[in-house]
Write a structure and sequence with these properties.
The structure holds 2 protein chains of 2 kinds. Chain A is α/β, with parallel strands linked by helices. Chain A has 9 helices and 10 strands. Chain B is globular.
Chain lengths: ~250, ~425
Amino acid sequence: MIAAGIDIGSRTIGFVLLDCDSGELVHHDILDSGYDPIGRARDYVGRFSYDKLVATGYGRHAANAKFADEVITEIKAYARGARYVLPQVRTILDIGGQDTKTILLSEDGIVSEFQMNEKCAAGTGKFMEVMAVALGYSLDEFAAAPLQVTGKAIKISSMCAVFAESEVVSLLNSGCPRADVANAVIDSVAERAAGMLQRTGVISPALFAGGGAHNNCLKDKIAALVGVDLHVPNQPQLIGAIGAACEARRLLR
Amino acid sequence: MNDYSQMWSDLGIDIPSHNILMTALPELYTDVYLSQPDRPQGMAYFDGLISQLHGERIQELLEHKQRGGKVLATMCVFVPEEIVLACGAIAVGLCGGIDWATNEVEKVLPRNMCALIKSFMGFKLGKVCPYFEVADLVVGETTCDGKKKSFEVLGDYIPVHVMETPQMKNLIDYQMWDAELQRFIEVVENLTGNKISAASLQNGISKVNNKRKALQRLSATRKADPSPISGKDALLIYQTAFYDDIDRFTAKVNVLCDELEQRISAAATQHTVPDKLRIMVSGTPMAVPNWKIPHLIESAGGRIVFDEMCTGERYFQNLVAQPEGKSVAQMVTDITRRSLEIDCACFTPNQVRIDKVIAKTAEYNVDGVIHYALQSCDPFTIEGFRMEKQLKEAGIAIMRLETDYSQEDVGQLQTRIEAFLETLAERKG
């Protein structure tokens, strides 16, 4: 039997198929959410056959109304998905499009604590996207910018995407090299993520998921702040979909 | 349905704005309340009360005024309704559960402050609350800095009497509150022209005690598993307790309780499915029509069985001692004692509140506590941290939420609440 999981996020849709017997992933894909994420997801999953589909992410309830069999929250999905890729995992950090979340798991994989950012885009992937645009970088260039830091350390104090953007602009206007400013932005995101991790508790091994995990400098900065290595899986943006598929497999059994 | 346009217009209500408010509410009410399955029949009275909150009830208050009676508007469990009734006046609550006239409010108050304060100010400045327009006097209190200073501002638009509420529970605080009650009696006597007598105060105390007892009875039915009433319905009753005619309200709550108690006995013989997850909500009051968090909790499959709020237990958990055969001074002392039993976060220290929450989670068989605080409500947001720490030490699951009246965080809140319920379900196995 085939278990399917879909994670409909604000920026991307992750979809995976899991063979229930072997436990292997037999298909995985990431799509842009676009302007009609539910329609796009429905059309996409219609091309596959599976025995049960569990949805998670921002669009989970809309998906449930249209084409999914069950829903679970991102918290549970990330807990399940992280255990799938790293069975001993105790701590999860996810920096996604509009959410940042941290989860602490018990030894047997049960969620014991979690935190999510409240309301605004502070410290999320969206925040970094806005800052990269303000600095004239692509996301990859932005992620690598800390490697070209030149001068003394500077600090971005605002976490509001709008205020931080004006802070960035005024730093550029005062002559700061943009690599230094990018470094400061990534520092501020790292500090916020580390703060959330410390509030939920950090136990090794820890996994870093979501689009933010593609940013290697960010990963190193957070790891240095919390004193624990962060494991980045091959497909950090698929952890939610994998978790949803794991739940579908559990339901099928 | 009667047309109250003339009445509202005579009261000085801004009719076009009020129409907007009145068209938004039925839709919300249908969505949050009327769509619930298996509601007790006794809720029909309270549905009617809500639909007539700006109509029939206001007309009753106007008739009371035409007979020479006075109306005092309050918004706090400290304000002694007993004294108001003893002078032949009526106490009503003030609306404060929806963002209104924000642009006007931000001309007189800072932007980052508690949504409840901004809301009542908006209702006054936007002229959409008939309770404000009917009221002869607003009775404010000093339970937080935001309210304390905002009542000064409100005083520019309507007569306000501010009572200084105690912050500790030492001898001096009892003396101070006793003196505040004496000062309040003078104010109400002067306003109404009626002197308080032992008989009238005894009558006032009995009426309010009876209301509180009916609400205690309602609360007790929620110990049953499954609880015979949704948390949203119970909240509605606690909310309307501030508005309705006291004797009628008390009678209707008791009628509802008869039905709920029958439901409980019927459930016992029919082996009804128990509640999936039993939730306590603790924190800041939820003024009408603020049903945001309870709606999210119950839509996600939780059943709220205990409301540790001023729109809830804090309103009715303590009674004034039996007044029979006592002098006015003795009864005032009893009212003081009751006020000083209140476990609002405005007190320091306030360990009794946390101890109560821990005790009630066991008594009501609660699976998890959701601590709810309005953003910028310092007393409750700060106390929430202590609450969280001590509950966790006691092995009780708790999640703290901070929000306001906007809808922009509903997606985030829904995810957090659902995730909390998922973890409770896993715990429960």
